[in-house]
Structure formats: structure tokens, C-alpha cells
Write a structure and sequence with these properties.
Layout lengths: L2 E6 L5 H22 L1 H16 L5 E6 L8
Helix pairs in contact: 1-2
């Protein structure tokens, strides 16, 4: 294994969204959610669940390299 990282779940936090998607991507996601009330409700409900259970949620990233192939 090359790297292993553990972090808090921040999937729907505005800062994390901009870091992951870039400003233009985050604004696009927000714009689509604002134009679709049902989607906005779903996103806000997910964010509330993430915040409520923050102590029990996390993000894990694993980076690995494939084994070298033999000729």
C-alpha cells in the first residue's frame, strides 16, 4: 500500500465541495439543486444526516500500486 488516510466525512460541506469539484463545478451543482426543489430537499436531508451522525461517519482513502507484472 502506498498511502492510507482517514478524515471526517465532509462530502456535502461547502468547502469540501469546492475543493473536490472546483468553484465552477460547485456552483453548477448548487444551481441545479436550486432549480429542482425535490433534489434540493434530498441534498439538504443528506447533509442533515451527515451532520447528525458526524461522530460515527468518516472518509477513508487508500492508494495502492499494482504489483509489477512478470514477463
Amino acid at each position: 500500500m502506498t498511502a492510507r488516510r482517514i478524515a471526517p466525512m465532509a462530502l456535502l460541506e461547502p468547502r469540501r465541495l469546492v475543493a473536490d469539484e472546483g468553484l465552477a463545478g460547485a456552483l453548477g451543482i448548487a444551481g441545479r439543486a436550486l432549480r429542482d426543489p425535490a433534489a434540493l430537499r434530498r441534498v439538504l436531508r443528506m447533509r442533515r444526516v451527515f451532520c447528525r451522525h458526524r461522530a460515527h461517519l468518516g472518509a477513508i482513502a487508500l492508494v495502492a500500486r499494482p504489483a509489477p507484472t512478470r514477463p
